[in-house]
Amino acid sequence: MKINVLRAILIFLLITQMWIIFGFSNQDGETSGSISRKITEIITKNISAIQNLPKDEKQIVLKRIEHIVRKLAHFSIYAVIGFLLMSLMSTYKIKQKNRICISAIIGLLYAISDEIHQAFIPGRGPLVSDVFIDSSGVIMGIFIAYIIISFCLSKLFINEVGSMR
After folding, report:
1. What distance in Å separates the CA atoms of residue 150 and residue 43, rounded to the nearest whole number?
2. Cα 49 vs. chain centroid, distance in angstroms?
3. Domains of the chain: total
4. Mind listing the pLDDT tens digit for each residue in 117-141?
């Protein structure tokens, strides 16, 4: 029964994360851009080397940083997807290779569907580079889940063996 509760929680978290991504992708280009600009301003407001630049140069630097902020957001939010997918797949008795492949395929398909969705949003458009970044995030999330789960299982095994003595 515990495994079903864990699966339900992971599915809920996965759907919630996908809904959050859908919400971000559903924003028009102007709204999405303004959020990235605000985050960039917060990050750079106390960096005097940027703030003291001439206005034109400052705008160029801020635009570059904003681009990095957007791509890091893509990567991180999809890393969570990968982590949740791998965690969910690890609750099933299937080969580790299959858990990884299923998680990666589902993550990739969601990234592709997200970019297709953006094709229908004003001021947005699908980018193959975003699918690559999103998929890289998924792979990182899978890797992190794999490491954590392996560590927890090895600790459990060591404790079980230790308690048998």
Report:
1. 35
2. 31
3. 1
4. 999 999 899 999 999 999 999 999 9
The CA distance from 63 to 37, in Å, is: 8
Range of the structural domain that residue 34 is part of: 2-164
CB 71 within 8 A of CB 133: yes
pTM of full prediction above 0.85: yes
Tens digit of pLDDT for each residue in 148-163?
998 887 776 565 544 4
Q: How far apart are CA 76 and CA 19, in angstroms?
A: 15
Contact 85, 140 (CB under 8 A): no
- Which among 106, 114, 110 has a CA at the least distance from the CA of 24? 114
Q: Which of 62, 73, 79 is nearest to 25 (CA)?
A: 73
CA 123 to chain centre: 23
Indicate left, alpha or beta for 136 from its phi (over 0: left) and psi (-120 to 50: alpha): alpha
Separation CA 157–CA 73 (nearest Å): 37
Q: Could you give the 3-state DSSP secondary structure of residue 27?
A: coil
Q: Mean pLDDT for the chain?
A: 91
| CA–CA–CA angle 97, 112, 103 (5° rounding) | 20
